[in-house]
Amino acid sequence: MSTLRGRIGLALLVFGLTTLITMGGAVWVSLRDLHRDAAAGALAELTIPYAVRAGQQIPLEAFRRGGAGERPASEAIERFRQSQEGRRASGQFIAFVQAAQDEIDAAGISVMLIGDGQVVVRSPVSGRIETMASVPDVRLPLVGGEVVTGQTQMDGLGQVLYAATPVRAPRSDRVMPSLVLVREDDSAAMATADLLAALTLAGLVLLVIGVPLALGLSRSVTRPLHRLAAASDAVASGKLPDALPATGPLEVAEAVAAFNAMAAEVGATREAQRQLLADLRHDLRTPLTVIGGFSQALRDGTASGEVAVRAADAISEEAGRLGRMLDDLDHLTMPGGSGPPVRLETIDSLDAANSAVERFRGEAERRGQMLALADEARSTPLTADRDVLDRILGNIIANALAHAPSPGGHVVIEVERSSHGITLAVRDDGPGIPPAALAHVFDRFYRADPSRTSRGSGLGLAIVRDLAVALGGEAFAENTGSGARVGVTLPASTPVRDARSPAS
Length: 504
Hints:
single chain; alpha+beta; five-stranded antiparallel beta sheet; 51% helix
């Protein structure tokens, strides 16, 4: 059997047959004994009436005892057979047997007269006294009225059951040879017939109950396994199925639960990788925008002298940033890798903000906007990942430039220290954030006005939030009355919460 269903069915069949055979053997022995006891009891009930009738026809004086309590000796039996009186007694007994022959045949028995272990007369009879083989295994009663039953092997009859009782004449205490009723011991055949009938019925019950039970049991195991196999194929093809119901036997349910946990982990890893790729794709636009802006300035000659040097430095810095982003992609090939590692170092937050201003100055000028540091910004040390911090500031500034008026808009970067940590925020004078959107601006792919023609992907602020959490801080967004203010608050000393940032 190659299938689980077939093996379960075969196991139940073997178990059922083994149980039937084992119980059948015990039942057969019990039935045989019951039939044997019933047949012996029936013989015993017939023995006394037959013995009384036989005593009325056989003269007692033909049997002489050698002494008180002694049974007739074999010589006496032989003399009895040879004597005229014995022949007359035998004839009378034969007449008795022949008169009851129909009754005897109907009962399926043989009638014997046994004295001292030897058969004197037996039925069916030939009409004369015959010398019979001795039957030493037959236990004969010693007192009148006693009935002895048993089983033995007899010549010409095979295995038989017998019942014996002494023949007693009317109104006499003298005991003659024992009358023995014999019948074939067919208790084994009758027990076998009864058992076959019972086994046939049990087999039908087994088919009616066992087959549906086997099918139900096999389905309870195979159905979850089939679902598990189909779900595994779906995972292998890149699809994540819904959680499977943990049904079936305990072992199968545990396997399904383990698969659900594995599928959830695979789904989380794939989602983290997808988010990382989406975030990197989004973040690549910022360096490319900066490089494109400064490259255009160098090309058309608007950047010269010290400005040209700054443009070249910015292009070089952004190229290095692009290289580090590509290095971060290598972490996707690592087992369990869901994002780049966090590289902590001590950073001057004012220097980081000033660097961000320089990166986007060209873009702001191209759009006719003013980008600057707040007058109250002060140098404050911060423990963070410089690339992560640059990505945070880059996304916030890009978001502010996109929503500030163009031309004529103002974007200001704030750096301040508070009891909660270091706050880096970007303030613009755009239309602000709709009140209904404030709770969702950091949601992935969310845009306050989906119908606008902006090319934004809705990832920028979601990336800001994830990166701020990776550095142990939080992101915030609020309206100022004359625009929007978006930023992050980071601890002055960032704890290492994990070896990797969350999917970003």
